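Note to self: keep these together.
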Amino acid sequence: MLPYPLAPFFSVCILPSAMFTDPLHVISGELTGDAALDTAISRAILVRVDSGELPATLQVGMPHRVVAFGKHDVVTPGFTKAVDVAREQGFDTTVRIAGGRAVVFHPGTIRFAWTVPVEAPADTMHARFAALAQAVVATLAAFDVAAEVGELPNEYCAGSYSVHLKNGAKVMGVGQRLSRHAAQVGGMIVVNDPSTINSVLGPIYGHLGIGFDPDMTGALSDVRLLEPDSVATVLTESLAPDGAPVPSSVDAITSDLGSSMRRDHVPQHLRERTEPS
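Structure:
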């Protein structure tokens, strides 16, 4: 359990009360090793939470080496070369469902997707971003790691709700996808090995024409050596009402739906659709 309650962080956020009173179902570590399929399964969870078939669900786990491109990247000149760079460096590739630009996952990062049922999700989009960012700040504080919310100049996948070390570099990036009756806040926390991120994002952002300062890429290991599993556990407790997450798994219906949508998240398929023949 957390060493202190997190309720004060959420009480300032104007969110539907059910988001924090209904049990949070947690799918931990069930990544497939197929980046496009993992993305599609997250999308399937959003679809099923939206329809009321699934409750609020958190996916959390340590991924393999993946470059996840944003939809804007797909229509940006240089996308094909950027995908080739990722694959040449041994990264799997996918196009994620949320906005933003290319990000890198590897085994020293934590991948999360927090999906909640909510009416009129656009009305509370920023409140959810803020709640997630503050939950990450509080999670890091549990390990005596001081962090702040805010965008740094020329950080990767820039955003107002990024989390960076106090007087340091970015350690968490986040995006959000809205549907009619649900929202999914997804992102990553860098626990260690920021150099792996820079080694591939540098040339990728170059091909995409995005400003990038590698000094803005950080990791929790810049100040404290931690195990990704430990950080993931505390993050899970921080997002669960009363610190009582309900263990869950990807069921057959979700898996089949994800498999049916996998092709939509394969960069090769998307660039064939968007680039002239």
